[in-house]
Amino acid sequence: MITIAQARACYEAARDSAHDFDHVLRVLAMAERIARAEGADLEIVRAAALLHDVGRAQEARAGGDHAAIGAQRAREILDGCPPDRVQAVAEAILTHRFRVERPPRTLEARVLYDADKLDAIGAIGIARAYAVAGREASPLWGEVPEHYQGDSPLHTPRHEFAFKLVHIQSKMQTDTGRQIAQERHRYMVAFFRRLEQEVCGQR
Predict the structure, then answer these.
(1) Superfamily of the domain at 1-100
(2) Calpha distance 18→130 (Å, rounded)
């Protein structure tokens, strides 16, 4: 349906290293792995992975929901492909967001969801959190209030861990995604535990 080169041309130059085209390629690789294990339609999954963040630039400029924007853009980009397959790609893109209550319904959508979320945890997830912190000039560490819900003006990687990243493992949609998430989750928890010990002078 679409090649990597064609998809790359649909993205504007990213100012956010956490959501650049390298992120898209990582999601593609993970989505292909999960799709093969789960028996999903690889062509649908590949197209959805390659186009899943194509709405981010517009969201950054004008607001809105990049998943909804991306789903519509995918329909335009894939115009000429079989309509049912275009719809399947758009559906997967529309339902890939973590913070929106729009759960993925198809197998291909669940595969994309898991692949995208897995890129937010483990070693790569930690690296992305600190890349964002560097861009925003956030502290390396910060106390997280009890029952934190993302409502503090101070949002460090530790806040992101407490508010979002620690919950991703429980949101996985496929058996394969859950297995991968368990190992990445353990690594991430151990990292932040060790970081806290170093910050407090215990290690």
Answers:
(1) Hypothetical protein af1432 (1.10.3210.10)
(2) 9
